[in-house]
Design brief:
single chain, alpha/beta, Purple Acid Phosphatase, chain A, domain 2, three-stranded parallel sheet, 9 helices, hydrolase, Ser/Thr-sp_prot-phosphatase
Length: 212
């Protein structure tokens, strides 16, 4: 199944509400994604700029919903929103692992990034170990992008993943990350000082935060 072949649009014509509407309408495995490759590139570029404008350690206020691995199970993501409220009814923090394994990784990450674009101060996603090229190259996301879109789209998503924050602190008390704590981590200031983009190697303090 391929992405939609829509006429290319400019950034000032990009309608995130329309893209969200089309993504939410894709609720069955029989439907192909109704978003063009050009729109996916715009989603990546716009969301990347937002991530780069926000800190590596997010400092957030309650209340917000916290969600774990999605792994391309797009129907589960939609059920979660049905249960807990579609943004902006609820604020969200996702802890990583949006792609690989499941059948609809593109829809999953595209919808999450669209909500980040629409609600940059109320919708947050962290980096998981599957938001790393050397993993999602193997576990399904690369093959899905190649089959349904192109390798260029896979590379665009990697550029976004390399800019995702790695941790969040809620109400100065609750520390959230995908993986664990590195023995070299002595203070939260170390996380704040991590510079992006981060092209991950499987060692180091920042990597421990999103590798299991």
């Amino acid at each position: 199944m391929m992405v939609s072949r829509r006429k290319p649009i400019q950034y000032n014509e990009f309608d995130v509400n329309d893209v969200i509407r089309r993504l939410i309408a894709v609720k069955t495995y029989q439907k192909s994604i109704d978003v063009s490759e050009h729109e996916l590139k715009m989603i990546c570029n716009l969301s990347r700029s937002i991530f780069m404008s926000q800190p590596m350690l997010l400092e957030l206020e309650a209340p917000l919903k916290i969600a774990g691995d999605i792994h391309g199970q797009y129907s589960d993501l939609l059920r979660l929103f049905d249960l807990c409220g579609f943004p902006p009814e609820s604020n969200y923090l996702f802890l990583g692992d949006y792609v690989d394994r499941g059948p609809k990784s593109i829809e999953t990450i595209a919808l999450l990034l669209c909500y980040k674009i629409k609600y940059p101060k109320n919708f947050f996603i962290l980096r998981g170990n599957h938001e790393v090229a050397n993993l999602n190259r193997i576990y399904g996301f690369y093959d899905e992008c190649k089959r349904r879109c192109s390798v260029k789209i896979w590379k665009c998503f990697q550029d976004v993943f390399n800019c995702l924050p790695v941790a969040a602190l809620i109400e100065h008390k609750i520390f959230c990350c995908h993986g664990g704590l590195s023995p070299s981590l002595r203070s939260l200031e170390q996380i704040k000082r991590i510079t992006r983009p981060v092209d991950v190697q499987e060692t180091g303090m920042s990597t421990a935060l999103f590798f299991l």
